[in-house]
């Protein structure tokens, strides 16, 4: 009797203990899940933020490109531009600017030279007059 | 004008003082160099590995030459000695001793003769000697020359066998260039005004029919080996120490530079001393290769024309390998000069 | 070449005239005397006495006879003078002949024995020397170059070479002579003459054949200054003038009156000495004495030349008489420095009557006086010869002032170096006078750093300043290059004041070189031992396409190229504003001497390394003969000219390249023929 009572009590205790253990495990498990979820969420947030910054930057580069010159970029395509493509566009842009500067310089040089020569040419007959005067 | 790019040059660091002469053997697999640090070195020309050192001189080694079989090496030094070496073993086979420094030595085409120029000093007249070489046993040599003569007037500093082994071409301190009979010592021809300052180098074309001289007068000239007629003149803005004729392409290579005293610190720092490439026929500069940190003292072109070496006041030998651009460059269109 | 040395034989011959000693040969007749009424006769006689005395041809009272025209109550325009000996009469002729008495009168002196010749030419005035001048070559012939090129001269050792500067860095020798000068070379302001310096004096060369046009004998001459109109020159020698015994006399050489003097003013056309002055040195005592050059400053119209006695006065002399104007100097207590306002194109047009109803502006000079007790420093504008004070401005806390005129005389900037009350740090005020506006409005720009350079854009409305706040400034150790900032300002037309266009920070540039046509600028680091950079800038890069915006007023300012010229000591633009020459002179160091030519973009066109190289000078050009309208017309039709020039250039290039190819072909053929012959001979000999 005593033994059985003892057994029962032990059993109860064991059951209680087991229940407790179980509950604790479950709780731990839940906490863990929660932590994981938060972590994933945070990672996702960071990723999104990075992405948005990247997009923003890309957007800015593209806007810049469009503003600076008439590069053929479809605004709707901006979403689809990858970094490599952008770098390529930037290089194109720099090349284009370099070419523009050189073209302008060539024109300036020609204008300078030709104005000077035209003046000298038209001055030539006047020189003769100036001498005989 | 282009700045010739070279594949990464090999830097030979075996000398502690300025170089005096560099020379390839006939096959071009070996490069010999001598220097003011008394040493003579032999290198594998394709990778710059040192084959050996020829030790024995006690003074600046001014000059060297190697025969057509790469059997014997001859050197001349400020210690008043001329030495004959076994190229392979590095052994000194024979030593001639004079009263003054040996300024220039050269083999004849067949390796049977050596011409040797000794310096003029109070104790002795400047002399040109021709020695007959015993090619069978290098250790047994005649101490006496087969001919000995003293050019009068201006000092001779350079000599080489000319068109054939019967003629010696000389370069002089006054700028004079002359031809002597190797046997009699008679001056057969002279161009007193080839340069107006000392002649610093004299190198023959592969077939010996013409030669190039460089001078402190900042110019280099191409001469007919038989008549001494000046064929071409290359005028630079710097005193020249060396000139070489390139096979394969119609160029001459010129090296020199202002003396260290009058040279800018930037030039020294930046290694701006350049080998100049001039078109042999058009007398126009076509390109430059820079790299030395002081004047260039000596230049030699590989017999196959695909690389060259320069020895500098800075103590370095630089071996340059021409890249495609050098061979492809046709600055003058399709006009081709005969070699 | 000894031929080029000055020799006296031609002068000696010219004056070594021998006459028969008859009784009339000691009398000379001088023609070209001003015509005056009786009341001014005495004054004229006195003046003649003074001038003749100064020229070394003094005569005794009573030995001058002035023929009188009683009918008209005036003199006849010539005088007779009797000298004690024939020799004296002859030397008087030499001294007086050709002398410019005043603006309208020049003397012709002759023997009385030749009087017959003169009876018919009483009233006709022949400008002396003019005939000789006309017979000369066209001194401006170089301007007629069909290719519109400019010239430059280089000095190497004592050898001079003049070159045409062709397109793309090509050059063609005009003339070269060994040992052409004994020290240096200089051009006159409009390029008409090239001056060389010798122990005996200065020589002037010009014309297509580069003959000697003039020679001025001033032993040991060191310095030379031309008047802006090339009519006069000033020379200075460190050795006071000495007159040897029995020296020849004449208007073109110094006389005993000049003895001990060091500075001489000459008439370049006649070669006559106009006046000499003691020394070019200024200062209270020998310790503070310093050489100030130019010692005499010319008004823009060549009419006046002024000399300053610091702290006291400005003495202005009129040309060609070299008399003190109104017989009195401009006395200004404490005055430190002055500058004449330059003459602009519009002033000259006004003077030449090319602008309707406009009269030329009177000459203006600007001077400043420093602060003294109870009295501020002050800048004053004064017109001359009226001596009217046009404008003055008080300044405070002044350590120094520099006067910078814009080259057309449109603006004056007074750069005022100021100190804080504690005198610890320096800053700067720019006081800018607008000279073409009523009452000469002044604008003040305060710059908080030290200003080490101020330059006006030639013919423009912009200026550039270089500032520094580098702590090393003023006491930099060798090898340290001062950090600077460059600022460009421009006149805002609508508001009438100057505004900052752009600042370029963190540079080492310390020198600004404006193109003579404006717009383009070279910024350079000069005098450093380690930095030799040159930056080529364009201030109107985008031109008219992009009008200046208020947001970014400096948007038109563009760096075209950055380069380096090792050891550079001098930089100069060509007169056309198309090219720049940089040079490294052996006068300063002996490292890589020589010169380089660049285009305005900073592209190197050619470089010459030459030992003993000393000087590179572009030949200046006079003002264009084209009127404003003609210039406008040409600009309008530029497209047509352009087409023509492009065609000419293409034709030239193809000719050149065709010639070049042909000559190379020939060289190759010659070479190959020789090689083939030699190879054959070699083979034959080897076969033997």
Automatic annotation (TrEMBL), chain B:
InterPro entries named in the record: eIF3i, WD40/YVTN_repeat-like_dom_sf, WD40_repeat_CS, WD40_repeat_dom_sf, WD40_rpt
Chain coiled-coil ranges: none
Subcellular location: Cytoplasm
GO biological process, alphabetically ordered: formation of cytoplasmic translation initiation complex
SMART domains recorded: WD40
GO cellular component: eukaryotic 43S preinitiation complex; eukaryotic 48S preinitiation complex; eukaryotic translation initiation factor 3 complex, eIF3m
Keyword list, A-Z: Cytoplasm, Initiation factor, Protein biosynthesis, Repeat, WD repeat
Primary residence: cytoplasm
GO molecular function annotation: RNA binding; translation initiation factor activity
Record flagged with keyword Repeat: yes
PROSITE patterns named among the record's database cross-references: WD_REPEATS_1, WD_REPEATS_2, WD_REPEATS_REGION
WD repeat extents: 12-53, 54-95, 192-233, 289-319
Known role: Component of the eukaryotic translation initiation factor 3 (eIF-3) complex, which is involved in protein synthesis of a specialized repertoire of mRNAs and, together with other initiation factors, stimulates binding of mRNA and methionyl-tRNAi to the 40S ribosome. The eIF-3 complex specifically targets and initiates translation of a subset of mRNAs involved in cell proliferation.
Family: Belongs to the WD repeat STRAP family. Belongs to the eIF-3 subunit I family.
Self-association state and partner proteins as the record states: Component of the eukaryotic translation initiation factor 3 (eIF-3) complex.
HAMAP family named among the record's database cross-references: eIF3i
Protein name: Eukaryotic translation initiation factor 3 subunit I
């Amino acid at each position: 009797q005593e033994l059985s009572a003892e057994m029962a009590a032990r059993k109860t205790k064991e059951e209680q203990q087991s229940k407790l253990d179980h509950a604790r495990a479950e709780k731990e498990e839940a906490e863990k899940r929660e932590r994981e979820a938060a972590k994933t969420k945070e990672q996702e947030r960071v990723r999104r933020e990075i992405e948005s910054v990247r997009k923003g930057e890309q957007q800015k580069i593209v806007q810049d490109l469009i503003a600076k010159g008439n590069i053929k970029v479809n605004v709707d395509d901006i979403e689809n531009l990858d970094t490599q493509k952008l770098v390529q566009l930037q290089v194109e842009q720099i090349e284009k600017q370099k070419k523009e500067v050189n073209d302008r310089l060539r024109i300036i040089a020609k204008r300078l030279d030709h104005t000077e020569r035209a003046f000298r040419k038209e001055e030539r007959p006047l020189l003769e007059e100036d001498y005989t005067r | 004008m282009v700045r010739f790019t070279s594949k990464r040059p090999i830097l030979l660091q075996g000398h502690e003082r300025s170089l005096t002469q560099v020379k390839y053997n006939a096959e071009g697999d070996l490069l010999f160099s001598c220097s003011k640090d008394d040493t003579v070195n032999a290198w594998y020309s394709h990778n710059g590995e040192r084959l050996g050192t020829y030790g024995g001189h006690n003074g600046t080694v001014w000059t060297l030459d190697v025969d057509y079989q790469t059997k014997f090496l001859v050197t001349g030094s400020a210690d008043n000695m001329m030495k004959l070496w076994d190229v392979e073993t590095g052994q000194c086979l024979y030593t001639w001793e004079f009263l003054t420094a040996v300024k220039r030595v050269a083999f004849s085409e067949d390796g049977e003769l050596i011409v040797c120029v000794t310096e003029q000093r109070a104790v002795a007249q400047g002399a040109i000697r021709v020695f007959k070489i015993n090619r069978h046993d290098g250790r047994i040599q005649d101490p006496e020359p087969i001919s000995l003569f003293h050019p009068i007037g201006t000092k001779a500093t350079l000599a080489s066998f000319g068109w054939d082994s019967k003629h010696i071409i000389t370069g002089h301190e006054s700028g004079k260039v002359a031809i002597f009979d190797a046997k009699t010592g008679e001056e057969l021809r002279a161009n007193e005004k080839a340069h107006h300052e000392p002649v610093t180098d004299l190198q023959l074309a592969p077939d010996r029919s013409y030669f190039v001289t460089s001078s402190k007068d900042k110019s280099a000239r191409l001469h007919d080996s038989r008549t001494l007629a000046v064929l071409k003149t290359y005028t630079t803005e710097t005193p020249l120490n060396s000139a070489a004729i390139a096979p394969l392409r119609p160029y001459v290579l010129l090296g020199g530079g202002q003396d260290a005293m009058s040279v800018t610190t930037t030039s020294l720092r930046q290694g701006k001393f350049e080998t100049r490439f001039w078109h042999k026929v058009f007398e126009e500069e076509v390109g430059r290769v820079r790299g030395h940190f002081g004047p260039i003292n000596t230049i030699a072109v590989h017999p196959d024309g695909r690389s060259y070496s320069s020895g500098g006041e800075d103590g370095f030998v630089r071996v340059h390998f021409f890249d495609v651009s050098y061979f492809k460059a046709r600055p003058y269109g399709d006009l081709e000069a005969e070699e | 070449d000894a031929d080029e040395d000055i020799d006296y034989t031609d002068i000696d011959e010219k004056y070594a005239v021998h006459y028969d000693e008859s009784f009339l040969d000691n009398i000379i007749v001088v023609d070209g005397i001003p015509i005056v009424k009786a009341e001014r006769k005495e004054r004229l006689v006195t003046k003649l006495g003074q001038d003749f005395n100064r020229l070394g041809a003094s005569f005794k009272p009573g030995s001058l006879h002035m023929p009188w025209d009683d009918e008209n109550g005036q003199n006849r325009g010539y005088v007779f003078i009797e000298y004690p000996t024939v020799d004296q009469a002859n030397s008087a002729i030499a001294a007086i002949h050709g002398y410019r008495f005043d603006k309208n009168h020049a003397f012709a002196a002759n023997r009385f024995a030749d009087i017959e010749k003169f009876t018919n030419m009483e009233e006709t005035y022949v400008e002396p020397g003019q005939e000789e001048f006309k017979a000369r070559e066209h001194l401006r012939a170089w301007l007629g170059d069909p290719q519109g090129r400019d010239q430059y001269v280089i000095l190497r050792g004592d050898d001079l070479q003049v070159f045409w500067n062709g397109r793309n860095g090509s050059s063609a020798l005009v003339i070269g002579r060994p040992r052409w000068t004994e020290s240096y070379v200089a051009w006159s302001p409009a390029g008409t003459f090239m001056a060389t310096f010798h122990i005996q004096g200065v020589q002037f060369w010009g014309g297509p054949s580069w003959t000697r046009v003039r020679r001025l004998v001033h032993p040991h001459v060191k310095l030379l200054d031309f008047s802006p109109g090339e009519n006069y020159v000033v020379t200075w020698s460190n050795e006071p003038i000495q007159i040897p015994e029995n020296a020849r006399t004449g208007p073109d050489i110094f006389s005993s009156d000049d003895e001990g003097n060091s500075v001489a003013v000459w008439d370049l056309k006649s070669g006559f000495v106009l006046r000499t002055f003691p020394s070019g040195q200024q200062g209270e005592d020998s310790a503070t004495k310093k050489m100030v050059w130019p010692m005499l400053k010319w008004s823009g119209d060549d009419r006046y030349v002024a000399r300053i006695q610091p702290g006291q006065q400005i003495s202005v002399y009129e040309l060609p008489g070299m008399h003190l104007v109104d017989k009195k100097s401009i006395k200004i207590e404490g005055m430190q420095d002055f500058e004449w306002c330059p003459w602009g194109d519009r002033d000259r047009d006004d003077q030449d009557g090319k602008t309707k109803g406009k009269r030329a502006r009177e000459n203006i000079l600007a001077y400043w006086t420093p602060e003294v007790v109870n009295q501020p420093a002050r800048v004053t504008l004064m017109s001359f010869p009226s001596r009217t004070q046009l404008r003055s401005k008080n300044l405070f806390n002044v350590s120094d002032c520099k006067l910078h005129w814009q080259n057309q005389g449109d603006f004056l900037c007074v750069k005022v170096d100021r100190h804080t009350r504690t005198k610890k740090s320096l800053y700067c005020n720019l006081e800018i006078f607008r000279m073409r506006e009523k009452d000469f409005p002044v604008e003040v720009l305060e710059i908080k750093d030290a200003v080490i350079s101020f330059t006006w854009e030639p013919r423009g409305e912009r200026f550039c300043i270089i500032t520094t706040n580098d702590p090393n400034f003023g006491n930099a150790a060798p090898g340290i290059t001062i950090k600077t900032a460059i600022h460009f300002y421009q006149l805002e037309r609508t508001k009438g004041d100057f505004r900052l266009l752009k600042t370029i920070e963190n540079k080492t540039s310390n020198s600004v070189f404006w193109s003579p046509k404006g717009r383009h600028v070279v910024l350079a680091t000069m005098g450093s031992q380690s930095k030799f950079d040159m930056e080529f800038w364009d201030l109107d890069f985008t031109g008219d396409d992009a009008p200046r915006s208020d947001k970014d007023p400096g948007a038109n300012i563009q760096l075209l190229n950055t380069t380096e010229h090792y050891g550079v000591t001098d930089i100069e633009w060509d007169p056309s504003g198309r090219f720049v020459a940089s040079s490294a002179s052996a006068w300063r160091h002996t490292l890589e001497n020589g010169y380089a030519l660049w285009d305005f973009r900073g592209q190197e066109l050619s470089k010459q390394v030459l030992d003993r190289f000393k000087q590179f000078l572009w030949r200046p050009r006079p003002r264009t003969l084209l009127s404003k309208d003609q210039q406008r017309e040409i600009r309008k039709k530029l497209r047509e000219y352009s087409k023509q020039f492009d065609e000419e250039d293409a034709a030239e290039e193809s000719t050149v390249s065709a010639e070049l190819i042909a000559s190379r072909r020939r060289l190759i053929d010659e070479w190959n023929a020789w090689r083939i012959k030699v190879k054959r001979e070699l083979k034959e000999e080897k076969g033997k």
